[in-house]
């Protein structure tokens, strides 16, 4: 089934631990994005990638890193999790960075204790 | 920077009532405008979009018109159903630069039978 998958669905993590959220799309989209959703704040962009091999910082990048080794995968890493990173994380993709209809994954609910 | 402002929720309506969710934006350029919908426990889905002034986006009975003079993109539906209960996000995307979506904070709609 075409679309975006994210893993895990949910995770409880101790503060200070390292965590990687996975995102894979099979639509051959060039551009991919990571957002976090917090109540009352909508979705905020963490990092983005316009094409494989390139990444950029979004609105709230601190404490997160990404890589884009190929077209399909765009993992998000929390090097040392803190409670303020408790959130729902959504991965999204679009055909190109200039084709601005984005498709979203189902999300990962992360709780940092 | 760019921003999107939506009316506060929740909005509670009876079935078959008329719906308006207000959205205004601030942007340095000439953005594309979107409405996304998030059903409980799911990711965001594109509901409708408009890419230039006076364009009307429509889908599933929902409509929104791109008003450049008032920098608005209000969502309307003539007769809501219980199945429309969800959170609605207004968003914009600039035509240059990062092109990621800037979201409003979301408006929860509850439709009662």
What features would you describe in this structure?
Chain A has 113 residues and is an all-beta fold. Helices cover 0% and strands 48% of the residues of chain A. Chain A is built from no helices and eleven strands. In chain A, strands 2, 4, 5, 6, 9, 10 and 11 form a seven-stranded mixed beta sheet that branches. In chain A, strands 1-3-8-7 form a four-stranded antiparallel beta sheet, with no helix packed on it. In chain A, strand 5 (42-49) and strand 6 (56-57) form a beta hairpin. The radius of gyration of chain A is 13 Å and the shape is globular. The model of chain A has no long low-confidence stretch (mean pLDDT 93). Chain B is mainly beta and 113 residues long. Chain B is built from no helices and twelve strands. Chain B has strands spanning 3-6, 11-14, 19-21, 23-26, 32-38, 44-50, 56-59, 62-65, 75-77, 86-93, 101-103, 107-112. In chain B, strands 2, 5, 6, 10, 11 and 12 form a six-stranded mixed beta sheet that branches. The radius of gyration of chain B is 14 Å and the shape is globular. The mean pLDDT of chain B is 92.
């Amino acid at each position: 089934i075409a679309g975006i998958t994210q893993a895990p669905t949910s995770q409880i993590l101790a503060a200070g631990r390292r965590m990687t959220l996975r995102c894979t799309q099979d639509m051959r989209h060039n551009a991919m994005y990571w957002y976090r959703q917090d109540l009352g704040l909508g979705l905020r962009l963490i990092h983005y990638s316009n094409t494989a091999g390139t990444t950029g910082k979004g609105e709230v990048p601190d404490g997160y890193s990404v890589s884009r080794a190929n077209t399909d995968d765009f993992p998000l890493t929390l090097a040392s999790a803190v409670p303020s990173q408790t959130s729902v994380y959504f991965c999204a993709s679009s055909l190109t960075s200039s084709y601005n209809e984005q498709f979203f994954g189902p999300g990962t609910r992360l709780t940092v204790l | 920077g760019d921003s999107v402002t939506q009316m506060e929720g929740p909005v509670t309506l009876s079935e078959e009532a008329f719906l308006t969710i207000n959205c205004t934006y601030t942007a340095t350029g000439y953005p594309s405008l979107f409405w996304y919908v998030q059903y409980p426990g799911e990711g965001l889905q594109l509901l409708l979009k408009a890419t230039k002034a006076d364009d009307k986006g429509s889908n599933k009975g929902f409509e929104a018109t791109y008003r450049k003079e008032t920098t608005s993109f209000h969502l309307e539906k003539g007769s809501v159903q219980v199945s429309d209960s969800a959170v609605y996000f207004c968003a914009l995307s600039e035509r240059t630069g990062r092109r990621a979506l800037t979201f409003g904070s979301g408006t929860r709609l509850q439709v009662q039978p």
